[in-house]
User: Fold this.
Amino acid sequence: MPPQLNRKRAMFVLTKIDEILTWEKQKEIERDTRFVDLGRYLCEVRAGQYWRLENLKSFDEFLARRFSESRRKAYYLMSIHEHLPPQARKDLKEVGWTKGLELAKIARRDGQHFDCATWLHKARALPKEDFRRAVEKELTGREEEPSELIYFKVYKSQIPVIEQAIETAALMLGTDKSRGYCLEMICADFLAGAHLDNGNPEILLNSVSRYYKFLPREQQQTFLENLRVKAS
Assistant:
């Protein structure tokens, strides 16, 4: 059964969300200072089903109206609100929502043992990319390999296909993998198919090697055993 709709509270929260989104467009530089409030209000909309006030069918449809380019950011903000303790959320306005998302990864893993003060200090002291690498090392136990940002233009009509392909790859690889890994898998799949018959064997070998890296450890062992059997 859906919760009883509190129309007055729903109207207040929906108005606040629209105010913040409008303000965000006007104040691009200062936008991070209100992301905590936005994440909190979005969580309340989902829990209370306030989207019914606008005669919408689902929370996802509500997000599609307000985050037309990508709903991913909305879910990121909600994750920050859901996983970080209140004392951490008070100080997050100083570090920005992207660092807040990295903090939420640590908090989700550590639960009640999350060292809020230490990680907030690191978030303030380190540049964004250095902090992201520090969190990655903490979660995986290994240093991240060097990376680059690649920029290219796509048309709006191409975005749904690209997003769907990356989301499908994420389901196969696991949600802990970055979008970069997902894109690599898609490209490796294309190269493997393109060079499967009478193609460049070096490219095919490289593509298969990258596939192997994506496999869980148990499946990697199974793959190696199958190679040994066929080789013998």
Q: What stands out?
A: The CA atoms of residues 192 and 204 lie 5 Å apart. The mean pLDDT is 81. DSSP finds twelve helices and no strands in the chain. The radius of gyration is 22 Å.
